[in-house]
Amino acid sequence: MKGRKINPKRFEIGQLKIILLILPLVIFMGMPIIFIINHAFKPMEELFAFPPTFFVKNATLENFSKLIKFSDSSGIPLSRYLFNSLVVTVITVGLALLLTTMSAFALAKIKFKGRNALTHINQIAIMFVSTAVLIPRYLVICKLGLIDNLLAHILPLVAMPVALFLVKQFVEQVPDSLLEAAYMDGATDLDIYLKVIMPMIRPAVATAAILVFQQVWTNMETSSYFFSDDSMKTLTFYMNTLVNVNNTVAGQGMAAAASLIMFLPNLILFIILQNKVMNTMANSGIK
Amino acid sequence: MAETTKMSRKDKKALKERMKHLKSGKLERRYARMGYIFMIPWFIGAAVFLAYPLGSSFWYALNNIRITPLGRIFSFVGQGNFTQILIQDPDFMIYLVDYLTSTIISTPIIVVFALIIAMMLNMKIKGKGFFRLIFFLPVIIVSGPILGMLTAEGAGSISAIDTQSLTSAISSVLPDIIAKPISDVFNNMITTLWYSGVQILIFLSGLQKIDKSMYEAAKIDGGSAWECFWKITLPNLKSMILLNTIYTIVFISNNSENPIIVLIEESMFSGTKEKGYGYASAMAWLYSVVVLILVGLFALLLATRKDQYEKQVKRAIKARKKEARNKKKIERRNRRNAKKIERQRAAGKITTHTTDRSDY
């Protein structure tokens, strides 16, 4: 049952041609990452140097210390925003994954009336521009009395059509014969969901987790439209105000540092989850 | 099942009659109920935060809305907002055409690029995890303000490709309307490729699901790597290709950098009399319909191609049905002819020589 190891143990000559093919692409694709890391450590004169430089020459931590000093001087500590962001992100990702996998299982494998209609509604919802439903969403939040409540960060993002579409596509690939075998052995639908479907679609769940996390973590809409109380807003919003409010010479350094801080969680999560994407038991249990 | 096939025709007919009045069985209903139970949490979320806002935004699109200190003032204008956008708005149509051409060109590029990269990353090379990281992460950054800084520094295009000569070469062959978006795509090649992180991830997980023993079997039968790609990898990835195409189109169209989205947002918060939220909703609906049509086109292109095997099965079924029909026709004709002969014989028109058995 052990998953395949991703990396071969040794470097072999046969790998050389693939690496040669990939390397130039890697350089292009890695550019924004290198840029963002370099940018955060640039001292003031390098940030505004003309022509702009790509790599940092005299690296400093000046930007970070400025950022910390600035957040200390404002009324609400940085830790409060961080706490908000963490709570919101963890709950949203968990809930969204639970709901999407459950409904993906139902939509792909259980026959019931209105299944096709629900699928179509979901597909239409994917296409729709999210800014256009902003005001109706605001009214719904108002009616539910969730203004300035952390739930207003969570609920609008829990039903994510793109994630459902993705997971459903994977559940459909789970062979029916496997489910039938489980039914014959007396499994209930819940058993099948937990013990057959979930292990089989783990790579899809990991992918969906990365997607949802990215959406939630970078989401500023909820903070700026559903909240008037500053202490309930998220870190992303705070970082963005730093960039916009202090759109001055001094603010640029802080903005660079802030964008690195916002970027790091994505990096860490991806490093953790990318093994899950690969170590799948492909088609196990079927001959 | 075996019993029903043995049933006589009459019984079958009776059963069918009875089935019409019957509702679905207990087991079936219980099964369907599980489906509803699994759907309910998502359904509530989607209904409150997706379906209801969608519906009400359509209603808003038919109205002119002004937000005053006393509340929102609705005045029904019917299709007025739509005609205004299509006829009077100077930017919308131009942006829309630009968007359409660039999306149609860049979507296949992104999907094919993602497929190639995913297949390379699926091979056995050292440092795969690192490569995967590099290819995925740009997506996160591209959705932020950093993209602007990067393109300002000219990192958005491949400097190795001489874009100037390429543009002139393209425009000498093709008319200007087609040449411009193509050269635009080449100018922003890197930015386009940065969008492909999620697609690579989806392809990778699709590739992982393909059974390794299939490749082994193909190799034993003498299949080359090229044949394996066309006969095993691509058919197995078909649903993933569709998924990725749709995802790419949606990502490009709902990106906050997209000029149409910016236009919608601008008109949403503009204070002028004729614009405002209703106008913005109408624009969003128009735009969504266009995106939907685009996605539908791509889906049609990718989804209608059936398997060779499926085709053969369908052809066989068709042939069998035709045979059955012919047989019935012949039978019917025989019966008809027999009746005719019977009638004619009764009328005495045909005299057949009959011999009594008792004669012998």
Q: Which structural class fits the helix and strand makeup of chain B? A: mainly alpha
What would CATH call the homologous superfamily of chain A?
MetI-like
Distance separating the two termini of chain A: 15 Å
CATH T-level topology of chain A = MetI-like fold
Note the topology.
The complex is a heterodimer of chains A (287) and B (360).
Chain A: H1 16-40, H2 44-47, H3 62-73, H4 78-109, H5 115-127, H6 134-144, H7 151-158, H8 161-171, H9 176-184, H10 189-200, H11 202-217, H12 221-226, H13 235-245, H14 249-278
Chain B: H1 2-6, H2 9-21, H3 26-61, E1 63-68, E2 71-76, H4 80-88, H5 92-121, H6 128-136, H7 138-142, H8 146-152, H9 163-173, H10 176-187, H11 189-194, H12 197-209, H13 212-220, H14 225-236, H15 238-254, H16 259-268, H17 277-303, H18 308-347
Helix pairs in contact in B: 3-17, 5-10, 5-12, 5-15, 9-10, 12-15, 15-17, 16-17
Short description:
The complex is a heterodimer of chains A (287) and B (360). By secondary structure, chain A is mainly alpha-helical. Helix content of chain A is 70%, strand content 0%.
Features:
heterodimer; A: 287 residues; mainly alpha; MetI-like fold; disordered C terminus; B: 360 residues; two-stranded antiparallel sheet; 18 helices; extended
